[in-house]
Amino acid sequence: MRATYRILSAALLGSVAVQIFLAGRGIGTGSFAPHRGFAYGVLVLALVTTVAGLVARAPRRAVSCTAGAFALMFLQPVLVHLGKSAGADAGGGLFFGLHALNAVVMVSLLVVALRQPSPRGRPTEEKTARAREGAAS
């Protein structure tokens, strides 16, 4: 199950990268519909990934980072709404900039989640103690 969590985490990181690409494409074309539409799928994937991490008993830090990215995804539309409401003259660009920065933070959290070591590969204290006893005999 931990392998599933890692695969989902990598897919989530990739989907956030696609989201950033779609945002850049929207700036160039003036159409953000693909960016908005794909966001719902990314949100669902983030929820599934977080739940999979909990079920798999993945490292706490990894699951916390995945859950943090999931939580930050809810902030994204709020920042866009605030930017549109404020308008360009009243500092709306600040909120759009925060929208982009928030995406960078999400990417960072997901990279940290993926870099967490798998506990399977580490010897437990019990195994280490048994190995010491065996070596002493």
Explain briefly what this protein structure is.
This protein has 137 residues and is an all-alpha fold.
Q: What does it look like?
A:
The chain is mainly alpha-helical and 137 residues long. It has one domain. It contains 5 helices and no strands. The model has no long low-confidence stretch (mean pLDDT 89).
Poorly predicted ranges: none
Please give the alpha-carbon distance between the first and last residues: 38 Å
Work out the radius of gyration.
20 Å
Helicity level: over 70%
Number of helices: 5
- The ordered string of helix (H) and strand (E) elements is HHHHH
Total number of domains: 1
Coarse morphology = elongated
Number of beta-strand segments: 0
Counting helices, strands and paired strands, the structural category is mainly alpha
Estimate the mean pLDDT confidence.
89
For the biggest sheet, the summary is: none
Fraction in beta strands: under 5%
Tag the structure with descriptive keywords.
single chain; mainly alpha; 5 helices; 137 residues
Sequence-ordered SSE layout with sheet pairings:
Elements: H1 2-29, H2 33-55, H3 60-86, H4 92-115, H5 125-136
